[in-house]
Each structure stands twice: as C-alpha cells, then as structure tokens.
Design brief:
This protein is mainly α. The protein is 47% helix and 5% strand. It contains 15 helices and 7 strands.
C-alpha cells in the first residue's frame, strides 16, 4: 500500500503523539508507589491531564474528520453503516476517567487503605483501554484515510490537515483555568520542562523554598534529575550547594557538634520521607561525613532505596555495621566506585562483607552467601578504611572470592594493623591498576605487598585518626 503524502495524512502525526502519551501513562503507572502520598497525587494529576488530552483528541477527530466524512459518504450503503458502527465506541476512555476521578476523591478524603484495591482496578482498566486503543488507531488509519482520499479533494485535505495539526498542538500545553492575559502570574504558562531546567540551577535551600509556593512547583521540585547528590554533611553545616552538582573534593566539615548532628538527623528524616520515595533511583552520591550520633538504620534505609549509588562518604562518623545491611537483608549497589569510611572506628568485618555482597550482588542467586553466585568484577575505584582498626583478614577474604578489582586505583588501610600481609598481598594481586604510591597500610605489617614502594601509613602523627603507633 503506497504511503500517504504527509500534507494530506490526517492521522499519522496525531496518532504518534497519542502513542507517546499512552507510553508515558504506562511508565508512570508502573513506577509509582501508591503508598506514597506525593507520588500518588502526582500520578493522579498526570493521568488526569493525559486522559484529558486523549479525550480531546477523540473529540477533534469526531468533530472535524468523522462528521465531515459521514456527510460525504453515500447514504443507505453498507459502507456508511460500518463507518457509524466504528465511530460509536469510545475505547474505554470514559470508564478510565471515572476511575481517575475516584483517585482524586481518595486524595481529598486522605484515604490510604483503599489504594491497593484502587491500584488493581486502575491498572486493569488502563490495560483494557490500551489493548483497545492501539487497534482503534490502526483501524482509523487503514479505514478512514482511504475514504478521505476518495471523497475529498487534495486541497480540502491539506486544509483539514493544517486544522487538525493546529488543534493537536494545544494538547500538550498545561491546562490553565484562565487566559494567560487575564492571569497576573504568567509563570503558569511556562512548560514543566522549562521550570525544571530553572530549578536545576538552585541551591537545595532555594529549591525547597520554591517547592512551598504552590502544588505544581512542589511536584516539580521532586523531579528525580534534580536530586543526584545528597550532601548531608554540607547541608547540616548550612552549606546549601546544588543537589545536581557533585563535589569532587569534600573538605572535612568544620562543625562536628551536637547541634550539627541534630540538623543532620532532621535532614536525613526529610530525605527519607520526601526525596527517596520519588528520586531514589537517580541518586548517585551520599555524603554523611563528620556527623556524630548518626543513625545507621537511617543510612541503611537510604542505601536500600538508591540502587544506582556510585559515591559513598561516611568518613569521621560513628556508624556501625547495620548501616550496610542486616543478616536477613542485603543491599544492591553494583555501581559503587567510591567508598570512604575513614575513621569509622565502630565498623567491623561485617561491614566489608556486606559492601562486598552489595557491589557484586547476584542477578539470580539462591544463596546470597555463596561466593560462586557473585559477579566476578567490581567497579570500585576508591576504598578508604583508614583508622578502621577492627577490620581483620576475615573482612578482606570476603572480597577475594573470584573477584577482580580491575578499576581500583586507591586503597587506604592506614591504621588497620590486623589485616595481615599475606591476605593483603593476595588482594592487591587482583588489582592490576593499583599503583604502589596509591597503596597505604600499617607500617607494622612487615610482609605486606609492594615492599618499600608502597606509601606506608598516613595516620602516624595524625591525632584525628586511629594509629597503632599512638597506643600505649
């Protein structure tokens, strides 16, 4: 069948727009946590807008194409009867809109217990709608377009095509109840994409301030791309940098006081409740350094929800092993490249074992404690356990089993006298890109790797980090 010229094709471009809209609906539906109030509210608003666009598309076609074509078709023919039968259905659209209206009512009533049932019903009805809607559009293209070319002149079709495209261009604009010229706040007319771009230049404090101005900005402020780097330490010290921008070199924060710890706890609570449920998969860095009395369970909650984390800095904090998992709970952090646990003196071999499992988490393993089930390679580039004197050879043995650290270029084990030279040598042998000048370990380990070429211990004379030389 020859391709219809674009200037008289009334269906291909609008239908392409509608197919993209349906794909957006499916994506939003399956990634939303219905138990989270903000995520659920955002989903219902998005579905309301999307199905309003689909409904308007149907009305445009019915008013400008179907109506015109029905007037041209010969009366009392089987063709006209078939045409009217095809145009009588509305592809389950009204039923889905009724269910979405119920979702808005759930939000207004503050009901959360009914959302599980609502999710099943909404998912089922949208699936039925999609299964009907795509064949519906294909039938329009194969049935209506030939009839239009048969009963309309080329000039008429060109004019009708221009009209249809103009009407569809208004569908993606955000609906505003008043005309822009009558609205004193013209920001309402700015597309969401532009507003998010502006928000990407704000500090975290300004971003959260903007989020309180209106409901729309609140939803947009939790766009995942805006939250890539959680600088908890800086924010607790009132250094409000942009959460989209990484800090390549993090200085030791100046304030390790109780007041700073309280601010950090408040920030972590907010992150867990508000940011993580919506943006967890986009977060790449978590920096909680030099914070006293930080709760390891809070860090574990964040790590669980951020599977794409690449950069972790918990240095100079009093975290314990449970920050990286529990006996019945393992993390999935396969993209980790930077782990800084400098002077975390409370962690033991369990932390190293759990990090090892998290970095090389099996895709389909029955027993997660069996080394054979883990991936062979690690992406880790930087590892600092300086001052973590409780780490022993047992922790490093857990990292060795069939794993090669091709990417590791920095290893600091200063102040870790209990590892042992043989296990350390075995580990370094699996790090082909680790140069001796970037390898640091306790001077009391006499049989360690690289001999006189390694950089030795960095903690000697440093009163802020543990060193066995400073012990009585």
């Amino acid at each position: 069948m020859p391709q219809t010229p674009e200037q008289i094709d009334l269906f291909s471009q609008p239908h392409l727009q509608m197919r993209g809209l349906v794909e957006k609906i499916n994506y939003a539906l399956h990634r939303t946590n219905f138990d989270d109030n903000i995520a659920f509210t955002k989903l219902i608003a998005s579905l309301s807008n999307s199905f309003a666009q689909l409904d308007k598309h149907e009305r445009i076609e019915k008013e400008h194409i179907v109506k015109s074509l029905s007037q041209r078709l010969p009366s009392n023919t089987s063709m006209l009867k078939e045409f009217k039968h095809h145009t009588s259905g509305h592809c389950h659209l009204e039923q889905v809109q009724k269910i979405i209206a119920r979702g808005r009512q759930l939000i207004n009533d503050g009901l959360s217990k009914d959302r599980k049932l609502f999710k099943r019903e909404l998912t089922r009805e949208i699936r039925v709608f999609v299964n009907e809607y795509f064949p519906h559009m294909e039938e329009e293209e194969s049935l209506f377009q030939p009839l239009l070319m048969q009963y309309f002149t080329e000039k008429e079709l060109v004019q009708l095509h221009i009209k249809i495209i103009e009407l569809h261009q208004t569908l993606s604009s955000p609906s505003v109840t008043r005309k822009i010229s009558d609205d004193p706040c013209h920001i309402l007319s700015v597309p969401n994409e532009v507003i998010v771009k502006v928000m990407s230049n704000l500090s975290v404090r300004d971003l959260l301030s903007v989020s309180q101005s209106c409901k729309r900005f609140q939803l947009l402020s939790y766009t995942p791309t805006l939250w890539k780097h959680l600088h908890i330490s800086n924010w607790a010290n009132r250094i409000y940098n942009n959460p989209m921008l990484p800090i390549l070199h993090v200085e030791k924060p100046p304030d390790g006081s109780f007041e700073c710890a309280e601010r950090a706890h408040t920030i972590l609570t907010y992150v867990i409740k508000k940011i993580i449920p919506l943006c967890g998969s986009s977060i790449e860095s978590l920096i909680v350094s030099n914070i006293n009395s930080v709760r390891s369970t809070m860090l574990l909650t964040i790590l669980q929800a951020c599977p794409n984390l690449q950069y972790i800095d918990f240095s100079y904090s009093d975290i314990i092993d449970s920050a990286f998992g529990l006996p019945h709970l393992s993390l999935k952090l396969p993209n980790l490249t930077h782990v800084d646990l400098t002077n975390c003196q409370s962690i033991t071999d369990k932390t190293l074992q759990r990090i090892s499992r998290a970095m090389c988490y099996p895709s389909s393993a029955v027993n997660r404690d069996t080394p054979e089930d883990f991936n062979e390679y690690s992406l880790l580039k930087y590892l600092s356990l300086s001052g973590c004197y409780r780490i022993t050879r047992t922790g490093f043995e857990s990292m060795l089993s069939k794993r090669i650290f091709d990417e590791l270029v920095h290893l600091d084990l200063s102040g870790c006298p209990n590892i042992g030279g043989s296990i350390l040598s075995n580990f370094v042998s699996q790090c082909p890109n680790l140069e001796p000048e970037n390898l640091y370990y306790c001077d009391n380990i006499l049989d360690g790797p690289c001999g006189n070429f390694a950089s030795g211990c960095l903690n000697c004379g440093d009163g802020t980090k543990f060193c066995c030389m400073q012990m009585d």
